[in-house]
Please model this.
Amino acid sequence: MTIINYPKNTEPTLTQDPDLHLVTDTGLTLTPHIFKNNTYTFLLPEEVKNIYIRSRTSSPRSHVGSPTKSQSQLGVLIGQIHIITHNQLYPVTEHLSQYNLDG
Model:
């Protein structure tokens, strides 16, 4: 039996692009305004109260030849976060001290 237009088995495509973006509490997806020197800058609407950081993920066991059986999903490592207004800089540090943040 022949299946027409059925894709052949292919290897997964690997990418270095983390697809880092933000999702607001209203469901709006925000892409980076600027990416320079490993720093992402986003423009946030004034009415936003909560944001969620999203990116592509990878599992260590999904790589060919990987000796691990870990099923954990790894994303990007977030360092410094700052909220900048017209005249002030506010550091955000919760993500550095709380293990299980929502988002």
Remarks:
- The first helix runs from residue 94 to 97.
- The first strand starts at residue 21 and ends at 24.
- Helices lie at 94-97.
